[in-house]
Amino acid sequence: MTTVRVGLGERSYDVVIEAGLLARAADRLLPLARGRVMPIVTDENVLPHLETLRAALGAAGVASEAIVLPPGESTKSWAMLEQLSDRLLDLGVERGDHVIALGGGVIGDLVGFACSILKRGCGFVQVPTTLLAQVDSSVGGKTAINTRAGKNLIGAFHQPALVLIDPTVLETLPPRQVRAGYAEVVKYGLIDDADFFAWCEANGAALLAGDLPLREHAIAYSVAAKARIVAEDERETRGRRALLNLGHTFGHALEAETGFSERLFHGEGVAAGMALAYGFSAAQGIAPHAAAARVTEHLRAVGLPDGLATAGVSASGKTLVGHMLHDKKMDAGTLPFLLARDIGESYVDKAVDLGAVEAFLDAQGR
Ligand SMILES: NC(=O)c1ccc[n+]([C@@H]2O[C@H](COP(=O)([O-])OP(=O)(O)OC[C@H]3O[C@@H](n4cnc5c(N)ncnc54)[C@H](O)[C@@H]3O)[C@@H](O)[C@H]2O)c1
Ligand SMILES: O=C(O)C(=O)C[C@@H](O)[C@H](O)[C@H](O)COP(=O)(O)O
Ligand SMILES: [Zn+2]
């Protein structure tokens, strides 16, 4: 078992990582239940794990109520936020209660946001069931829905009270989803740890094939890396947390262009986005071309998109930059970009010429 503490003063919490934890989750959840019914929000693809969790709670004398939503990115919507909030209000959720978000990043982001506004804020627990959610979205308190204008544009920072990660639940996750989540693992190496990127190059394929100890290592490493950054810059105001957005400015534009659909999962957009960020850094003479090539080669080797063509996007540079102008990092009309000087040396560049980004994108193969 590994426990990572996210140190945020009175909002600090533990992230517990252990194979088989779901069936033992009641030990951790009992103190948060306060003798009341615990709502568990999940989606239709997570039902076997919902049963495990409900059985564990039931055996410990904790009653639960399941709210099952449709799967997919379109669930992060105004309509679902309204529906979920009404259900939670009907259940009589109080500020001191804790709602359990059992699912991937979609469920975690939606439930976290609903809990941030329900009665001006109630508690919630993240029980992530995708690799992406286990290594990234369940930690750090970013919650959001998507809107017509783009990705995550309505949301709040709202930290969970606890995160429970059982890596064995990934056994039911489709391989394409595991790969998409792996992109966010690679991201931590590219941000600031060349040794971890080399570890990914050496172990990525076996991890994706299902090796449990490798998955446990990647999850524990990623959670610790994210917890450190979040503790330094909880609300992305100090420049540090923006590093977690590596690949996302390009990636969110690709997701917008593909309609937030099954055509391109978030992690796949991030993979292509990281390749583009390194490609652009190399084209600008900031990073060695060899570094950009290493990124592309690793992503391609594990079957992730490594650019526009493999992301299935044929839009022009102008269209893609148009999507980027909705990015939450926009600051007085300029868009800070996550670029890199080398593997593991990413940084925030506030002087990127959007015309150069457009030209770079137009020069990519489609
Ligand atoms: N808040 C953050 O810091 C943060 C970080 C990264 C990503 N995100 C957000 O997370 C979302 C993507 O999350 P995701 O990749 O987990 O997608 P997701 O929540 O859509 O889950 C992917 C698919 O896997 C299914 N699923 C979940 N667990 C399963 C399991 N154990 N077995 C079988 N099927 C399972 C889901 O039903 C869904 O179809 C995006 O909206 C992204 O913006 C947020
Ligand atoms: O936690 C963060 O900070 C991140 O940026 C993690 C990202 O992987 C995640 O996709 C996040 O939701 C993107 O944030 P956004 O502010 O660009 O919406
Ligand atoms: Zn992400």
Structure commentary:
Residues 67-179 form the 3-dehydroquinate synthase N-terminal domain. Belongs to the sugar phosphate cyclases superfamily. Dehydroquinate synthase family. The chain is an alpha/beta fold. It folds into two domains: 2-172, Rossmann fold; 175-362, Dehydroquinate synthase-like - alpha domain (Dehydroquinate synthase-like, alpha domain, Up-down Bundle), CATH 1.20.1090. The protein is built from 14 helices and eleven strands. The strands form three sheets. It has a seven-stranded mixed sheet, with helices on both faces. A two-stranded antiparallel ribbon has the order 7-8. β7 (142-147) and β8 form a beta hairpin. α3 (78-90) packs across α4, α6 packs antiparallel against α7 and α7 (194-209) packs across α8. The radius of gyration is 20 Å and the shape is globular. The termini are far apart. The mean pLDDT is 97. It binds nicotinamide-adenine-dinucleotide, ligand LNCXM5UN and zinc ion.
Spell out the key features of this protein.
Rossmann fold; 366 residues; 2 domains; binds nicotinamide-adenine-dinucleotide; alpha/beta; Dehydroquinate synthase-like, alpha domain; 47% helix
Number of helices: 14
**Cofactors and ligands:** nicotinamide-adenine-dinucleotide, the ligand O=C(O)C(=O)C[C@@H](O)[C@H](O)[C@H](O)COP(=O)(O)O, zinc ion
Q: What is the total tally of β strands?
A: 11
Q: Estimate the helix proportion, in percent.
A: 40-55%
Question: Strand order within the widest sheet?
Answer: 1-2-9-6-5-3-4
Instruction: Name the CATH superfamily assignment of the largest domain.
Output: Dehydroquinate synthase-like - alpha domain
User: Judging by the overall fold, what is the CATH architecture of the largest domain?
Assistant: Up-down Bundle
Question: Largest sheet, if any?
Answer: 7 strands, mixed
Please, what is the average pLDDT? 97
User: Order of SSEs, N→C?
Assistant: EEHEHEHEHEHEEEHHHHHHHHEEH
What general form does the structure show? Answer: globular
Distance between the termini: 45 Å
Task: Find the structural class using helix and strand composition.
Answer: alpha/beta
Q: Gyration radius, to the nearest Å? A: 20 Å
Low-confidence stretches: none
Number of domains: 2
Instruction: Examine the coordinates and then state which fold CATH places here, giving the name of the CATH topology of the largest domain.
Output: Dehydroquinate synthase-like, alpha domain
In the CATH hierarchy, what is the class of the largest domain? Mainly Alpha
